[in-house]
Amino acid sequence: MGFFVKMLTSHPVLSRHLPVQVSLCAALFGCVGEADLVFEDVERQPAVEGRPPLPMPLPAPMELPSFVASPVVPTSEDTGMEPPGGSASSPPVEVPVEQPAVPPACEAFGPFGTPEAVEGLGLSGDVLGPVFSADGLTMYFSELGSDENIFSATRQSRGAQFQQAQQVPNLDLDGSQEGTPFLSFDGLSLYFFSTRPGPGTQGNRDIWLAQRPSLDAEFGAPTVLPAVNGPGLEHLPRLSRDELTILFVSSRSSPNAFSNLWMAQRAHRADEFAAPVEVPGINTAAREEGFSLTPDGLTLFFASDRAAELDMDLWVATRASTSADFGAAESLLSLNTTEQELDPQLSPDGTELFFSSSRAGNFQLFRAVRECIRP
To answer: How many CA atoms lie within 13 A of 92 on its CB side?
Structure first.
């Protein structure tokens, strides 16, 4: 057993992905509300209805244009349009009504298709841990070469090819590693692990936080996230939409073997998290990690070497309600190979599953698509 642990911790990729059991159970959701644990869905405001006619003999009022709010934060751009009828010398201008950009939610999904390599990133090292902005157009991840650093890449629309990856400024420190990023729902906070030393650090790998004032600004210098780090390894932070609950992987002391899944909560975003507690009933000696939970909380994708398998594969587990336990997990046979599959992550609309795989020699990102069945 000692040799096996030494082999895992010495491998540049496997040591980064230490085990965590992520079959989330009712005890977890008993601590926080269902809405708080929706990590990936995108809320949008409904279209604004037209202004009703005034109850007096005035010229017929014009219908105002409908709009859909930005998927992350609304912009402050002024349209520059003069109100209809604003000039006495010009007749009112008819404004076309914009069609809502949000399609109805999917009633169900078809099976995942054949995975395809994610092209266009322009990176040669191991690419790991993809996560998305709320609109699904910006992907954050890390590249592991001689060092591990955090990158981002954008695309014009869902399903389009990503543009050349760019290293995220202000996060890297010479001689340290930074990885497993998580972008907050509003896009203003980036959580990640770093091996750098600094005030408040506890172990070899701690969770850090970088923030920015707006979506078009760079992230500021990161600071260690208080209260959640321990003397071992902490990584893979995943937060609720309101950022009041954090789940993460830790190798701190536990009755369960290897690394486990822990959680901590706080009352307000300005507060420090309370002392972390181990998520009860879900941690085992098997290696489970890299989870992605659907918006309704009923389906969990994760990577595991369970069933005495030597390689990591992608698995899925479902449950009837958020107060129920997940049922038996099933292997995603159409996506797995005899190589390693890690870090599954659904796109915000649920139609794309991104993951990292070593099937091509080193770890690269792959994407599998499934059909959205609408009501």
So the answer is: 12
